[in-house]
Structures are given as structure tokens and as C-alpha cells.
Amino acid sequence: MSDALSLHAALLLPWVLMALVLAGSAVSAGAQAVAAGRRVTGAELAGPLRAGARLLLVRRRTTLHPDALLWRVGGATVLVTAVMALAVVPLGGRAAVSSPVGVVWFNALETLLWAALWLTGWGANSVHGLIGGYRFLALSIAYELPFMLALITAAVYGGSLDPAVLGGQGGLWPVVVMPVAFVVYLLSGLAFSAWGPFSQPVAGDAAGGVLAELSGVDRLVVLVGRYAWLVATAAMSVPLFLGGGSGPVLPDVAWQVVKTVLVLIALVLAKGALPLLRAERFQEIAWVVLLPAIVLQALVVSVVVL
Amino acid sequence: MGLIEALSRFAFDRPHLLLVEAPGGTAGRLAVEQHARRRGWPLVDTPADADLLVTTGTTAVLEEHLVRVWEQFPGPRGRVHIGPGADVGCLLQAGRSSLLDRSRQRTDLRRTTRPGPGAPTGADMTGHDMSGHAGHDPGHMAMGGPESCGNAGPGMGGHAEPDMTGMAMGGTQPAGNAEPDMGGHAEHEMGGKAEHDMGGNADPGTGGHAGHDMDGMALPAGLGMAERAADRDGLKLDVLTVLWGPVLSNWPAGLVITTVLQGDVVQEATVRLLGDAHVRRAGWALVLPRLDAPAAAAVVRLDALSRLLDVAGWRRTALRAQRLRDEVVDGAHPVADVKRLDRELSRSRAMARMTSGVRTTHGEDVLQRCRRWIAEAAEALADCSRPPVADEPDVLHVLPTLLTGTDVAGMRLVVASVDLALSGADARAGADV
Questions:
Q1: DSSP code of residue A286
Q2: What interface predicted TM-score (ipTM) does this complex get?
Q3: Chain B hits for A277, Cβ within 8 Å
Q4: Taking CB atoms and an 8 Å limit, are A59 and B192 in contact across chains?
Q5: Which of A18, A201, B5, B62 has the highest local Cβ count within 10 Å?
Q6: Which mean pLDDT values do the consecutive 10-residue runs of chain B (433 residues) have?
Q7: In chain A, which residue's Cα lies nearest the Cα of B411?
Q8: Model pTM score
Q9: How many other C-beta atoms lie within 10 A of the C-beta of residue B72?
Q10: How far is A276 from A190, CA to CA, in rounded Å?
Q11: Do A212 and B319 touch (CB under 8 A)?
């Protein structure tokens, strides 16, 4: 039992998560300031802290006859699954909870997001939330298969489902061999956080979609949950595709953090860069273009490994 | 308590604004958007996320909607009205200080009375759900007029929720109240509550009380079950009547669309414009008179384009179009930038995929409309010639046919693409020359 749980990695986990969430959100705030033509100052970068403080001071609210339990559970699940997903990502060779099937664990938690975001929308008994929830499900149908295949491709190449093993292998970075899988993985990461071009579930045209009826702490939990999933995606991409902690000069841990931060910044900057990809139109692209491409990629990698 | 005050001041340094443009409030809207963009005060899409309700134009036609939106604000909240010629910055700062005024917020919180949860009765449905409240008084607001903004501070609505022990609720609908029966979901502008079609015979215009047919089943909170009807694929799906507008982000002022939705597909749509046409056109009159006709034409097109891009979710480009619009209003001629925006729009394949095929007026689709607007704006600024004013068919009659069969995203795009016609901006822009 003590082998599976690394205590000090587990204790470090929430701090690392918080630091990365703040860093990611600061980058996002800075990018928004630049887009609006404002200078990026400390006040801009403190935007996320300010938003968090505001949400703690603003009252919570409810609607007429919501399904309160499922609504709040849905919101909380977004954050909880992100933390659980991050628990299997190795930091310096040891994950907080080392698991021989960490990749499958990650995928399973991501599928819980289907329920979580849909419930957050439906539970509010509001038409905007419902529309947002269904948009999310439509997006999920589009990205889920390619995402699973991307994970499988990385596991096949590394010969293991354990992220610690995958990250510790050294040698050529997998992303060189499977660029399509990496791109699909990143796009899915954006999609399950409803971020950037995939933010139709929380879009302004449906008055905020899934977020339409949330205020106060409930809203904070869901917003932090979205960022936390971006962090989890970025963190997991390092052992899967970016060679774990390998790199000259700096120790493993430092490289892992650097790579995680770089991927996180890339993910965060996708916001506002493209028009919203409407779910039904994205489904076409995903099933007709992405899925065959990733299947081909998996085939190529399997042949290479053989 | 020094710490909480300091935290409040930090937290509400950039309050979230819910901007409502009533007919005739275009100048105010442009000013607020500019202020928000320059200071980083977010313009939000839902009252759940807003601190200040900022209204411009003649809000009298929207009053009932504004009251209902106001009560959906969680506290602390404030209201600001931007009148013609008002100092927007000053008024918004005053609004922000009202958020920090704790005794005022506490009064706001205590001032509402609310009936307890219980089965709704027909008697409760008078006008508004707040029994015991004489009139709707969303509070005194800071009237923006020629006088200084120092006098009336923005006011607090009279509808804050009472303290419910054990529950932290903000500005909510009381459970068991008649709200949903106001024609079902009537005026559900934002963040609606349960919008169930009451036995299929809800009539939003008259606030029919059709919902009390309980079918012998005790339905929760007096809401009816949604009726089902055949949809376009021959399936039987739930039918929901939903009102869009007049309080919605990037939405033409005073427009109310009653849609019958199945899933998120619009099966029927009825369109209504609140307020007079001449009031609507007068809204642009405050912005445009100092500009010559080509610049005016460029302004209205850039404005409509920025709203359409924002609805399409392309925030960065929408902000660029907004900045260009403001530059032209200030008298500049940023021809090169507008042309660059034009090129970026034509090169964007994502934009093409997402907006092509969404039919709008004049036989164009939304993508072509976007490109035409930006091309006309670029031409107007470069050649100093006014683009031809398209003879817009009666949009209110054409819109329902355009909207039938689209999904919600498509509906928003179509409405944003006829924005010029609805605001009468183009005619106004042309009229002065």
C-alpha cells in the first residue's frame, strides 16, 4: 500500500495544482488584455485572483426547482475528477498514486466529465444550461474516440499503461513518432474543458450555457475545475508524448514542470483565437478527418513498435 | 473590518457589467463597451455573473424585463443608467462604489419580501411575483444626464432576497411562485427559470395562466410537464417555448423572439420589436452626426461585424473590430487595419466552415454578409464613398422563415447578421448626406 501512495507527492499535489491554475489563468488574463489593447500590468495578471475573490464574496443563487443534488454534484465533479486525474501523473518519477493503468484511469475520469458538465447544465432547470449541456455531449461524441485512440497509441509505443513507466523511458520523444496523436490529444484537452474553440457549451450566445445559472462558490468550483483539467491534460502530456523528465542540465522534476507549463500556456492561449467550432460541424470534421487520421497513426506506430 | 473591506475593494475593482441596450441607447452602449474594454471590466452574458446592471436608452419599454433580470442578480449588485450625454466613467465608478457600500447592500438584501414556498395559486400571478410589493422598483439609479453623476447614486433594487436560513440564495426566484406561469417562461430573457410550455397553450404576450392544469398529478412547484409534438424527423420530442431577448448579449435593442424549441432546434419563431423605429434610429444619431457619410457607414458596419464575430465566438477579432469602430468614431481612418481585418476574415477557414450555409436576408449566408460588411467598411474608408444602402426587406416578416429549422447557434448568427437592418443604422447613416 505504501508503494502505491507517495505521501509527499500527494501532499504536494494541491499546491502544484493551485500554482499551475493561477499561472494558466494569469496567462489567459494577459492574453485577453493584449487582445483588448490594454497594457499587461500586474493588475491584469492578478485578474484570476480578483475573480476568485469576487466569487467568494458574491452570493450563491438558485433557480426555480432545480435538481439541487445533481446540479451541485455535477459542478463539484469537474474539479474532483481533475484532481484525481492529476494524482496519477508522475512528478520526478513518482506519482501521488502510482497506478499500473494510469492512462486508463485518466481516460475514465475524463468520461465522467460528460456527466459532470451535462448535469451542471441540466440540473439548473434552465433552458440555457440544457442547451449548453447538450452541446457538450455533442462535442464529446466527436472527440472521444480520437482521444482514446491517441492515448492507446502512446501506450502502445511505450509498451505500458503506467504513466511513470512511459515517462521514464528516455530516448526519442514519442511526439516525433506520433504527431497526429499529440495534436488530437491537445484538441481533446481543449474540448473537455470546454475551452477556446470548443467553448460552445459555455458560450455567450446561449447566455453562458452550462455556466448560465451559477454564481458564487458554485461558479468558482466549475471555473477552477475547467482550469484544473487543462492542467491535468498538460501534465499528462509530458510522460505520454514529451519524454517525461528527459532533458539536459536540469533535473527531471524541473524539466517536467517546464514542459507542463509550456503545454499549459499553449492550451490556454487557444482561447479567443478561433471562432467557436459548432458541435455538429465539428462532428463532421472529427469523424471524417480526425478519426481516420488517428487510426492510421496508431497503425503506423504499431508497425514501428513491432 | 479592514480585511473584508480590503478584500471587497480588490474583488470589485473591476465589476462585471450586464449591459442592456434599450432602443435609442446606441451611443451609451458604445461608450460602455469602450470603457469596459479599456479598463478591463468584463461584459458578461448572464445576470448570475454580473454585479452592475447598466442600461442605456429608453428603458421604459423594457421595464418589466429589467425587473425580472434585476431580481436574478446575486448580491452585491447595483444599477446604473446611462442617459444621453452622460459621463459614463463617472457613473460606472459610482456604481462600483455602491457595490462596496456594505450598509446599502445589506438594506438591499433585507428590503425584499418574499412569499414562502408553497403551491402557487392563481391569485399570486398578478403582474409580478412579489406579493406585498407595491410596484416594481428596481431602485433609484444614477440618472445620466447633463447634470453631474454625483447626485443620485445607483440604486438598489427592491427585490433582493431575504435571508433564508440554511441556504445562501441570491436574487432568486422564490420557489413555488407563479413565475413560470407568466406565459410559461415569458420574458425569460436571461438565465431563465423553468421554462416549460404549459400544456401547449402558453401565450407569452398575455401571460396566460394556462399552467394550472395539473392533470391530477402533483407536479413540482406548479410547473407543467412539457408537451410533446412531432419534430422534423418524425420523432416526438418535448416542446419548449423560449423567449430570446430583450436582455441578451450582442442582441439588437428591443428585439424579442418567441421560439418554439425542440431540443435546440427552432421549430417556430415569432418576432417582435419593442420601442419605436424612430427612437431606434435616433440612437445612432448621437454617434454619427459629426462623421461624414462614408465614415458613418464604416462605423455601423464595423459595429455590426464586431457583434456578429462575438456571437460567433471569435473574441479576438471581435475586439479588433470594436477598436477599429471606436477609432473611426473618434475621427481616424484606419484603412490599413480594416483591410488587414478583411484579409484575416477571408483567410479563416474555421469562420468559413462555421458560418457558411446559414442563410440570411438578401440570399446571402452569414459568411458572405460578414465579408460584405468588412469590404464595404474598408472601401468606405479608403475611397470616401458611401456604400450602397441595401434595400432591406421587412426583416420582421422575413426573420421567422429564416429562423425556422435553425438551431440556437444558427439563430443567434442570423439575428446578428440582420443587426444593421433592425437598428435602422444603415438608413440613418445614409440619411444625412
A1: I
A2: 0.93
A3: 350, 354
A4: no
A5: A201
A6: 88 95 90 94 95 93 92 92 90 94 88 52 36 40 43 36 35 36 37 37 37 53 80 85 91 92 90 84 80 87 93 93 93 90 91 86 87 90 79 79 92 89 60 38
A7: A205
A8: 0.85
A9: 28
A10: 12
A11: no
